[in-house]
Each structure stands twice: as structure tokens, then as C-alpha cells.
Amino acid sequence: MTGILQAAEAEMEEEIALDDVGDLSTPNQIFMDDEGETSSTNQSFLDDGGETSTTNQSFLDDDGGSSVVKLLLLGNARGASLLTQLKQTIFHQLKYTKFTQQELPAWKPVITPKWAMIIFMVVGIFSIPIGIVTLAASHNVVQIVHRYDRECMRSKTLEDSVSYIQNPSVDHRCNVTLVVPKMMKNPVFVFYELDKFHQNHRRYMKSRSTKQHQGEDRRSVDSCHPIARVSKRDPIIPCGLIAWTLFNDTYEFGFVNSPNGPALHIPVVQTGIAWKSDVKVKFSNKVYPENFPNNINNSTGRSRFPVGGASLDPALPLSKHENLMVWMRTAPMPRFRKLYGRIEHNLHAGQVINVSIANVYNTYSYKGSKRLVLSTTSFLGGKNPFLGRAYLTMGVLCMLMALVSIFVQFRHPREFGDKTRLTWNREPSELYSC
Amino acid sequence: MARGKNRVRFSKLYTWAGCFRPPSPLERQQSMSVGGPGFSRVVFCNKSELHLQKPYRYKGNYVSTTKYNALTFFPKALFEQFRRVANLYFLLAATLALTPVSPYSAASLIAPLVFVVGVSMCKEALEDWRRFRQDNEINNRSVNVHVGGGKFEGREWKKVKVGDVVKVEKDNFFPADLLMLSSSFPDGVCYVETMNLDGETNLKLKKSLERTVELDEDEEFSNFHGKIRCEDPNTSLYTFVGNLEYNEETLPLGPQQILLRDSKLRNTPFIYGVVIFAGHETKVMQNATDPPSKRSRIERKMDKIIYFLFAVLLLISVVGSVVFAVRTKFEMPNWWYLRPDDPTMYYDPKNAVAAGLLHLITALILYGYLIPISLYVSIELVKVLQARFINNDIKMYHPETDKPARARTSNLNEELGQIDTILSDKTGTLTCNQMEFIKCSIAGTAYGRGVTEVEKATARRLGKDPRMLEDASIAEEGESVVNGSVNGSVTDIEMRPMPEKPHVKGFNFKDERIQNGRWVDQPNPEEIRMFLRILAVCHTAIPEVDEETGTMTYEAESPDEASFVVAARELGFEFLKRTQSSVIVQEPGPNGAPVQREYKILNLLEFNSTRKRMSVVVRDESGQILLMCKGADSIIYDRLGRNGKGFWNATKGHLAKYGDAGLRTLALSYRRLENAEYEQWNQTFTKAKTTIGPDRDELLDQASELIERDLILVGATAVEDKLQQGVPECIDRLAQAGLKIWVLTGDKQETAINIGFACSLLRQGMHQIVIGLETPEMRAIEENGDKSQIAKAARESITQQLASGHHQINLDTEDDNPHALIIDGKSLMYALEDDLKQDLLKLATQCASVICCRVSPKQKALITRLVKEGTGKATLGIGDGANDVGMIQEADIGVGISGVEGMQAVMASDFSIAQFRFLERLLIVHGHWCYKRIALMIVYFFYKNITFGLTLFYYEAFTTFSGQTAYNDWYTSLFNVFFTSLPVIALGVFEQDVSSRVCLQFPALYQQGPKNMFFTWTRILGWMANGVYSSVVAFFFTLAAFEIEAYRKDGQLAGIEELGAAMYTCVVWVVNVQVALALSYFTWIQHVFIWGSVALWYLFLVVYGAINPTLSTTAYKVFVETLVDSPMYWFITILVPIACVLPYCVYQGYQRMFHPMDHHLIQEIHYLQKHITEPEMYKQERKKAVQKTHQGFSSRVQASMSLEKTKQRFYGDSNQVPEQNSMPSMEREGRNLPRQEAEVQRPHRIQSSAGKKVYRI
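YS: structure for the whole thing
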């Protein structure tokens, strides 16, 4: 035992002698390395003078202690078991755990040029196909967008338009012809599109009562200002600006077989356009429209509330008014589309569709527009090339980055872990301050 | 004794001076000198009830250190919380949330605030509860109190009143400040341990008045009455002035009779005492002080960022409000769907200005996410956790004292990584305050073969064999070497010297000539006898016999003194016993056999830092009166009589030599007194002693001065002040990390310089610039005595010396040799004045090492402030004693050594460590980590809140700034609390750029902190720009994907619910992916926190979405019904995070590729395992990874190696080793330099043989 120790000591001293001033401290390492270097050679142990060796010396002052250290230096297995003993006995107050000593095993990713390249490549390789697929999906969507607010308005001045649209006794019917550019597969969705309509205005958004619509409390209309009650006792159901402004243009579709022939009616399904949660929970089947300004006005012509939008059939509970539900899912932007219904027929290329529009909704006061949209969908929804373009751009950019990094590797190769780039190996003049 | 440690306490006597900043300790101290404490207190012994009435109304003994009580907790703690501007802002926001102005529901704003404030208050409450329990424990301790009729009864401490007579038994604490009346010992002494007051472990002797000694029975007190008049409560632990009127006599009282609360009775069965100060009026309580609150640089910069963001917030709010007002006025009348004809004031087109103003408030609340409420909480939490890691670091744990490192204030962790200058105390910090008697000079002959650490270290570094030194030290004396024990263990003599006898603590003296009684054969045996007798008698130590082993140890006020007594014992003069009035020493009789002699102690002239000496007047058994005096050599020299200077020249030479070897020296002298002379003097002295009042000390000094003259020099002692373990290595590494170390010490110049050499702060070849006033001219002026003249001359001299110092540095630019500045306290007095201090600082910063000696605690603090404010860099003060408190409190970071000496320094400090060497790990590992963690954490925090906050703003723009958010209220409120907080905390607590080992291996990495590379404005703004970019991408990409077309196969369109939820999902992903990229260290914790946060968002969405729509509003089933089966949603959540982090990745790649930082490269080296495969390269790099420094032994060795080379160039290949002796001569040369340089002449340089430069004019 002593012989071994002396040998170890001699070896150590030799090491110290070789090692010059920077490493005067006794090389010892009793704490296991967190980077799994323990398996390496004796040399690497001796190389670990950076650790405050003095710390260890403090409790290993006696010969026994330092022999443990030396034993460890020899990589002796017994040394390791002694180490565990030491760990348990020495620290009265503090316990050694990897957690408290911040030595938890950790993954320390270092971005090597190779890995950077691979990552860029991989991202690129994945993005480009996604981009192509989504772009194709968008491309395959067939869409007809037709703005009709101008052609359905004979008056040219704003004032005339407004008075025309607000006059219920005038016929607001207006016919529009659409040509199917491409085969549109069933189902074809019918949307109306408005713009400059601030459904996202805070005043507008707040003016609703989920409690009431849900049937919890019919009288809960405080949030509905300014469309809350007709009198103190009679709440408006459904209350609020949103319900009151319900869009009320209607569309009737028909095929035009010959230029002057009769139109063949195309049915538009207007059920199943609302979210199930709306139908089942948010809009009760026990709450019926009551005192609804649009209704009152239609029947009696007298109300302190002006006409807003569509009337609601008082005989049907709220849960049946799917168009209301769609409307009440307020749009996030001032330009928005809402689902009107579904045509469950295939529309073939070249077919001419006549749409009979009841142009009654006032978009003229605020100079908005109205559009009728017929669209098929892909698995991603409507005709929206953004996602595809974004993915493609990103993919291309990533590939480009990968190429650039390859290029850089060739032109200005930097040795990875290059010691010459360390600040202390460079001239002060070429130091780069970050 | 020679430790010039003034025990000054900067205390909390003063009112709150600054509104924003508590007064610094300096200001406090300055105001302390204004007006002395009053002397109005009257205590009627045994009549405690009298003090409850007017005019006394003294406080009871109930002590409370709590900040709050049950009633005041809520108002006070709340007030404390809302003193933070940020909290106040959030409170305002929450209050406004109750009005319709708020964009969010009230609950979603109030809940986080309540949480944040609640957590902080709980922390406060818990801390206070702990204090309360501690107080309670103390208040309910029991003590025996006289209840009348000579009966004592146990009573709780809190019920003890002023005037009560108490009986305290062995090993109990004193319940209040007591006047000691008597003890169980007939001579009325007792031993006291004052560990809790000053941390000193040695016992102190207290002594009751002679007149009250007989009161040593319970019954005696039935009729005991007395009246004490004394000073008012004050903070001075070491003074007390008062008198006792007892039995129609007025007896003077001094600190000797006062037993302070929190000290402990030791080695004495019991004592009786009268309570003078109770409760909060006790000296220890008066001293209690909170450390001044400090803030780190990073936090102060963070404030600036917050102001910046406030400005941004205000700007975008104003923009929003203006747009809102304009559109409301001009466009809203057309928006019939909003019923503009029936408006509320918030949207009234007719009164758009009011609406706009109201909107401004809304907007300020809405965009409040730019200033995260959780930042403060997160930082606080992170720092507390960091502090826990510091506390738990085993490598900073000192098992011998069982003391781990303690972060006493957690808010300065990151400052540890930015330190530029370390200001260190010497004694107890660099040295262990453990004295070993190693050499002495008696009657002009030097004894002692011991080799000091300094000598060994120097020899080792110069490649000499330290073993040779022992021979050399004897050989130098020209004496023959006796019994060479050198041949012992050849292998490692310096590691394990094999002593024949077990090592005696405090005694490392080896000299056969006088050991084992052989001194009688020496030429001057009588002088030696006197020398040893002085050592054995002239002290204030107390012998303590260990009952088990029977060995004797000495408790002394200072370790020097203990080492003297031990030395005397080892050399045959054993100090056996001390009684009230005498000292019994066993000394060799005339025939060599030991005899016991009693020395009556007539007077004790105490040591203090101004006198720098102590004396005793004793009467020996033959009736001869002797004055024995030991003190600093210069002081003793001035008081030597004409016939006392016989050995002066020889002794002086020895003293110089000892000084060079890093030893502390004292000169010993004595004087024989005639009876008549003594009696006459004794009257003067007693009178001075019984004086009450502030001038008492001065009178005592004057009286002492009268008798301490005409002394006869016997010899000098040399005591080694041992360096603490690992100090040279630690200094070396700290220096390599680019830290500057200044030593501020109370020691004299020579000792300070020696320790400077020992720690390698000074080295051969350094140009020493010594600034001092010990010049003949100054002395001449001083003798003339006009104060203003002295000051004027001194100022001139200092100015001149500073100027010539500058001049010298400018001249020496072309050679490598660094400069060292050594300045003493007296010069500092002038140099620290306003007009000179900039010069001083400029000079000091140009010097590699700065050593300030003979500095007062106040000067320590002043220097600290000068460095802190003058350089604008972070300073760290480290010390262990009460005299370092000012420095510790003034420095940016105060570190206390929780070693032997002190609690006071620790109590005032921000961090405490058990040993100086732990400073290395504290700074280079924990400091580095904490700095980087906090810096990254803060920039990331702003990043994530900008990313999030700006999406709110963009959305606003589409709603005509009406105050509508795309997100559900609870998404927004929980953003910082749930979905993004844990990763950032993981970042702040666990992140490691490199492992602790690498930090230590490459000390140069530390410079990233002081250079502040990670919290520069470019970096901060870069991250902010990244935040802006991310917000743009997250918002517009999501919008583009969901607008205007259907986003599902079934033709559904995105409502605000879906868009908001999708966008929020993207933001959560973006910020979490970004933090993952910013990290370089992933344990399972990081993975759980980061990916868990994202998962938590989905979980929340599902759970919250399942609640009734009246509560969940727009979140109702939004995920499970609408988003989960929409490929668009998933594609966008993949796209946005990648697109957001792309620029960051590119930048990182670019930086790593073209401008890699050191830690990047080291990470790479480790990644490639190069440190294993190429150990030589790794070792090389480690060696190079040091800052250019002139401190530390590495640089010293390097310098001496290059010196060797130079020499070889000059003289060919000679093996001449630079002589050690050249050091002192160098010093002397250096010391004269400034004056020579004053005449501005270009000096010639001559390369001397030792390679040093000498200036000749």
C-alpha cells in the first residue's frame, strides 16, 4: 500500500515539476467529473488543477485523506468507494447532491457548422414540400368573388344610397350573374364579405349577453347597451349591437341554361353553418326572440330603436337561428367573410349562375362594400396562398443559408474549437468587442 | 496587541438622511462625531419600580427585532410593496380595471397583482415570523432576579427591569447590560465570552469594584442600595463612563465593570449585577443595524430599460389614442352599427377628446405587458434560488468551522460577476490572525531558526530549496549550527517538517541556544531573564486549565499576546495564575530549579491604537517596582532613556530583517521605579481614572505618558502572522481573472509590505511608489507643532509626491516592470481630500498593486468610495473585523469572512465566506454564472414581453384602437405567470455557459462580466429588435393565414376567438423556442419547464375552454372544437416559431463563425473532447487564458524568469540567482524616489546586477 502511494507521489511530483507555475496547486480531483471524463486517462486527472484543490485539502489534511486523493489519481476502484464514504461523512452540514452542486447531467448542445448546415437543410427540405402542397391546395380552390353593392344601387350619391337602402317599401331586389370558371366540387360554400365593418370594435364586441342567449338569465342585458331593453321590464332578446346588426341580404341562386331561359333553382343549405357549441350551449333552444327591434319595426313600425339588420322569427328559439350564430362569432378584422350557406351541387365550368339578391343591408353609410363569394375548400380551407408561399420562402431561405454556410466553410474555414481565436491568442487590435 | 484594529461601529443612530438612498456609513460616521453622548442616566439599584415613573421611564427588557406586528403587518407590508413604482403602476391598472375603461376584466388584472404582492408579503411575513420566534425564545429565557428580602427568583428576561439586581450563572447569557457587583470569586472577577458581540472567541476578564466585592451572597442584597449615574444608551461597546454612589462614596465605573447583553459568563460560577440598560437600550441592540440596501449595476441598468419601455408604452398609447379620437370624431358617426347616436362617454363622437383621453388610460393598461409585472417577482425568485446554490456549494464549505458560504442578500448575485477591484483587509482575511512566536532579538542578539512562510514561498518560487534556509538563517548570525536536524526527511521537508516535540500552537521558535534553559549560558543572561519575564508578566491574558487533560491554555485579547505567553512558558517562564491584583509566574530560580513568583500588578496601562503600547507596573517579591512596556518599535524608541539604548542599533537591524521576512515585531522594554516616584504618579493616574466624562481618556494618556519614559530596551519579538490557507493561489487566480486587489490594512507599512510580498501582490522589480509623511522635513515641522502649518506642509508634500509618482510612471512606460503604490493612513488623510483624491486615484489605477497601511476604518470606507465612484467600476470589500464594516458597507459588494474574528463584518456583509480562498469560487464561478444568467434573463424577459405586447398593439390598430384585444383576458393575464415564466426561471437559475471547472480553468472568462459584454445597450436593443421582429411575424403571419378565407375544410371562418387563440399559441411557441435556443445547458429541468409550459398552454386551453361560456367567453371550446382539427392551425404554429427564430439562428451562426467569443470556443473544445485528446494544447491554453497582471505568484515567477533572461543577456550564462537581500535595498531606493523625482530631471538609468532599476540624478 505504502509502496503504491509513494509511487503515486513520485509520479505526482514529477507531474508538478513538468507542469509549470500555472498549476502549482496539487492536482487532485475528488469530485466526479460531470462530463464523464472520469473514464479518461490518468493524465486528464492530473490536468484538473483548475479545481480549487485547496478546498479538498482542507478536509483531507491528514495523511489518510491525501492518500485517498492519490488513490483516486491512480484510478483505483477502492479509491472510488472511499470517495463515497468521504462524501457521506465529511459534509456535516451540506449534503452533496448533483442538484445542489449544479452538476446535474446536462445536454450541452454546441452548434457546429456541420450541425447548423444539417439543421438548415432539414428545415429547408421539410418546408419546401409543405409549401408546395399547401400552395397547390390553395391553387386548386375555385372561387368566385363578386362585388355587388355598387351594381345593386342605382343612386349615385351617398345620401340617396342611404335613404334608398333604409326605405323598406322600395324593392331591393337585384340580379347578378356569375360564371363558374372551373369545376367547383360539392360542397360549394357561399359567403358574404363586408369591409370597413368593425365587428372588432370594443363597443360592438361587448354589446352582447352570453348569459341571456344561453338562457341562464333573460334579464341579463346590462352589457348589451345600447340595444338592451325596450322598457324597464322588457329586455330585448337577443340583446346587443351584434344581434341587432345581423346581416340581412339574401341570395337566391339559379342556373341560367340559356340567355333568356328560366333559371333552375339551386338550393342553398343554411343549416349546419354554425359551430356545434353555439347551437348546443351558447344559444339556447328555450330562448325565443322577444322585443327584437328589427321585428317590432317590421310589424308595427314604431320603436325607439331604429332598424338594424335582419329580423328574427319569434317562433323559432335562438338555437335555430344559425345565421345569427355565425354573425355573432365576431370577425377579428374589419374586412371579413361570413358563411351564408352551402350549395351541395357540383358547379361545372362555364355554367352561368343567376343570383337574385335582396340588397337591404346598409353598407353605404360607411362606404363599405359587399361581396358575394362562392368557394370550394381544400383541406386547408379557402384560397389562401400565404401559407404555401411562406413555407416555400422559408424553405428556400434555409437551403440558401445551408449553402452559404457550406460556402463559408470552404472559403473561410474556421477550425472548430480553434484555439487561435481565443481572445488571449489574438492581438488586441483584432479583438472584436461584442 | 500590535494589531491596530480600532473597534468602530457604524451604527444606525441617525435619522433617515437621504430620501432615496440610505446614508452611507461614512456619512453616518461623520455625524457621529458631532456631540458626544449625554450623561444623564440615573439608576437606582434594587428599586426598579422607580424607573417606570417620570422622569425616567426607561424601557423594559422586552426586545423585538420584528419589522411588523399583527396589527401593523398589513398596512406596513402593503406600503412596502407599493413603494415599488412598478407595483404601484399595476395597482393603478387594477383599480382602473374596475371601471369600463379597462380593456381587460378586473379579475384578470387583479389576480396576478394579488399573487405577486401576496408572494412577496408571504416572504416578508415568514421572515418576520422567524424573527418573532427568535425574539420570543430570547425574551422568555429565565434569569434570577432579586425580589426583595435577599431572595432571588427565576423570571423571564422580558420582565427584567432597569435597577433590578440579577444573578447570572455560569454559561448563561446576560439578560441586559449589567453593572457587575461581585462574582463567586473573592476578588470579584469574572470571565466573559463576547462571541456574539465581536466574534472574538477569547475570554475577557471583567472585574467588579473593590467596594462591592463583598456583596457575594443572596442575603446581602436585601438592603443593598446604590445610585448609578452614567452615560445615556449608546452604541460604543468598548467604552462606558459612569459612577456608583454607594455607602456615601462615589466610585468610578468603567467598561471593566460592565457586562453586556448577549455575552456569556464563562469559567465563573455566578455573578451579581444591576441592570443599567435594558431591552433596546442595551449596547448590542443599539448597535443592531441593517445593511444598507444595495442594488446591482444590472438592476440599475434595468431600471433604465424600464424607463425606456415606459416611454415606448406612452408613445404607442398616445398614438393609439390620437388615432382613436380622430376616427371616433370623423368616422364613427357613419358607423351606424355602433349606434353613434346613443353613445357613452367612452365612444362619443361629439366629445372625441374626452374619449381619446379615456382611451389613453385604457391603452396604458393594455400595453402594460411591455413592462412585465412578473419580471420583479421572477428576478427575486431567481436570485433567491441562486443564493441557495451559493449557500449549498460544498466547495465553499469549511468543515473545520462548519461554515458554508452564505449569500446574505440575494439581490447582488450578478454583481459578483462584474467585480473589478477587490479591496481586502489583511488580518483575518489574508492572514489567519494566528500568531506564532518565531524569532526574537534579545540584548542585541538574534535568536530563532524558524523559517517563515514568506521566506519559504519566495525561495520555492525562485527555485531554491527551502530546506537550505534553516541553515542559512543560523549561518547569517555567524553562529555554529547546532545538532543539524536537517538530515531528517529529505523528500518533503516543507510539507511535513518532523518536529521532535508536538507542535505548540503559537510557538514555532527553534533555537538551541536559549531553549531548555540554556539561555543562562548566553552572554547576557540577565537581559534574557528580563525579556522572558516581561513576556510572562506584561499582558492581559488569562490562563485556563483544561480540566480533563490538565493542560494550560491562555485566553488573550489578541493572538500576539497569547503567543508571547506561550513563548515565555516554552522558554521556562510559565504564567500560572492571574488574580485580581497579581500574576503568578513560575520561573527558574537562581539555582535553575523552578520557583513561583508573584508579581503584584499595581497598574495596567492598556493598549490602544493611538498609544500602540501597553505597560504594567508591578511590584515583585523583593518590593522593587518595575514598569514593563512593550510596543511598536518607533514608540518605544522615543521613550528610551539615555542608558536604555544600548542594544538599539543591533535590535533595529534585527527588526528590519524580521520585517522583511513578513513578521510582526514588538519592542520590549522596562524601567525600575522608585517608591516615591511611583506614589506620586499613582495619584495622578488614579485621579485620571476616576474622572467621568469625555476627556477621561486623554487624561489617562497624559498620565501614562508621565511614567512611560526613560525605558531600557531589552529586545524585540517577531511573530509570524500566518497566511490563510490557499491565499496566494487564490490571489493568483483572481489576478489572472483580471481582478485588481488592493490591500487596506491597519498594520504598519513594513508589515503590510511584507504581507504584500507574501501574497505576491508585490514582487521584486516592481517600482514602489511610497507616499508617506515620515520624512525628516515633516518631522521637523511637526515638532514645531503648529497644526495648520503641519497640514499645509503635509498637503504640499503629498501633492508633490503624487505628482512625482505620475511622473515616474510616465517615464517608465517603455519597460515592463509595474509600479506599486504604498501609502499610509496619515498621507491618506490629506490625499483623500477633495482636491487630491482624483490624483491619488489616477496614480493608484496606474499601479499594479496598491497597499494602504495604517488606515483607519473610516479611511477604508473612503478609499472604497473613491474607487467605486472614481472608476465607476464595481468594487468588492472583503474583511473580517469590525473595522472593515465601513468598507464592506460602502463597497458594491461586501464580503465578510465568517472565520474566527467576526460577526460584525458578517452582519454587515452581503456575502459571507469562511475563508478568503472561497472568494475565487464565489466570483469566478458563481459570479460569472449569475451575471450571465441574470443578464440573459432580463433581456429575454423584455424580448418576450415585447413580442407579446406588440401583437396587442398591432391588433388594436385594426380595431380603430378601440381597446379590443384579440386574446381572451385570461390568456393575457396568465402569459407571464404560467406559460412563459418557468423557462425563464430555469434560465436564471440553472444556465451554465461553461461548467464550474472550466470557469476556474480559464479565469479570463471572468472578464466578460467586468467588461459587461452581456448587458450592453447593443445587446439589449438587439434583443428588443428581435422581439419586434418576432411580434411582427407572429401577428401578421397568423393573420395572413387566417384571414380572410376559410381556414377549415368545412368552410368555417376564423372569428376573433380562433384568431386570438391561434396567435397566442404562436406567441407561446415562439418565446419558448427562443428561450430553448438561448440556453446552452439542458438538464431535465429545462426540458420539463420549457416544453411543459407549452403543454400547459394547451392544457389550459382545453380546461378553460370547457368552462361555461359566461366565464370562458371567447375561449369556450375554441381549441377542441375549432382549432384542433384544422391543419392550417398546426401549419402556422410550426411556421411562425421557425420564422421567428431564424434571424436569431443566423446571427448566432454568424457570430460563432466569425467572431466567436471565448466561451463559445471553449464549449467547442469540450464538445470535441479536445481537452482529453490534446491535453498539451489544453494546458497551454489554460496557461495563456489569464489577464495580463502583475499580481499573483505566477506573474512573479514569470517576472523573475524574464529577469534571469535579461541577466543572461547582460552577463552571459551565469547561474547567479537574484539575491533576496536585494528586496529591502530596492525598497529603500524606491522610497526615496519620489522626492528625487520632484526635481524634474531626466534620470539616468543604470541596469544594476539584480536587474532592478535605480535612479540616479
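YS: worth flagging: Residues 1-82, 87-91, 430-434 of chain A have pLDDT under 50 and may be disordered.
IM: good catch. Also Chain A touches chain B through 130 residues (CB under 8 Å).
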